[in-house]
């Protein structure tokens, strides 16, 4: 659920003309409703009523002007890989500061693999001001 909050805040700050320098998403879903439909199908309608529509990352990420690093595993058992891909392709991050990283071994609750950690460190180092 942290990615949804991060996308929401990034969109808000972009709208206020003070975008975050970087947005890091890991195993992110497109919306609470989509996540519930997969993991709790019988309760999906409740999620739609309880959580505000502004927590729809897929609709918000196109308004985000932050640089984006997104990591998603192809074997994530909670959040489908397709949802991560959808967020990344919908994002309108500035040219040259958007990076997608994936693997095919880590499950949802596993730590980020070392190769992906290294990619994140490199991405962060490129965002630093001179």
UniProtKB/TrEMBL annotation:
InterPro entries xrefs: AB_hydrolase_fold
Domain of life: Eukaryota
Protein name as annotated: Uncharacterized protein
Species assigned in the record: Hanusia phi
